[in-house]
Amino acid sequence: MIIVRWLRNSESDKNGDEETSFMQPANPAASRYYRPELDVVRFIAFLLVFLHHTLPSGSDPRVAHLLRGFGPAFDAAVTACGFGLSLFFTLSAFLICELLLREREKIGDISVKQFYIRRILRIWPLYYFGLALGMIFLFLPGGHPDEIVNIGWFAIFMGAWRVATQHSFNNPAEVLWSVSVEEQFYLFAPWVVKYLNRKSLYGFCAALLLVANIWLYFLGRASAIDRCIWWNSFVQYECFAGGILLCLVFRGRLPRLAIWQRIALLAFSFFCMF
User: Rounded to two decimals, what is the model's pTM?
Assistant: First the structure.
């Protein structure tokens, strides 16, 4: 599913029907929307999630023997790689906000209907195909037919909430939870950009950050398990707010940073992951 997300987002970058050349001043004459730098960011996000799910645990005797006293540090690195998904959420919000703002600046309005049609055609076929495979798995040996209710929650893009608040879900379709969270973001994203100016969008992002951290605070006080925190849509709204803020700050232009500033930011980012 991470590979599918990578390819889908890459296609949206290259689709000339969306908007004009990315991260440059708006130009109605331009015919393509594409920045290769975003492919690098997308690949890094994919690689981090891939490593998170494939690298062994530092507690494995063979790994512990190889790493000796560095097992805990290795586990910390593997866990931190899971935040590649947060990078996907941030990039998604960044791209959507940039597209919508460019549309509004170009024609003076945003066609919410066309936005949803594009999202549906791009996401739903693969999403529901994945759910169909999950349905088949329920009735195979070792499957749990009683978990069909969970499939139903995923079908209306509420699977993450279902699993985070009530149940575990041992099914391959479980990986679709991040897509359901992203679809929840799409419910309000076009309306917010349509009716709020840039200054109001800053306030909206501040509200999202506040909501996310209030939830994190109460989940921490309640000693919630990792699943209840990580799968909570409100917690992930922090990433969407970050993506929108980047869009607003850059204002369609590439930042001009010296090499040492880029290296320092990269090092600081890895430090934050730990």
Answer: 0.81
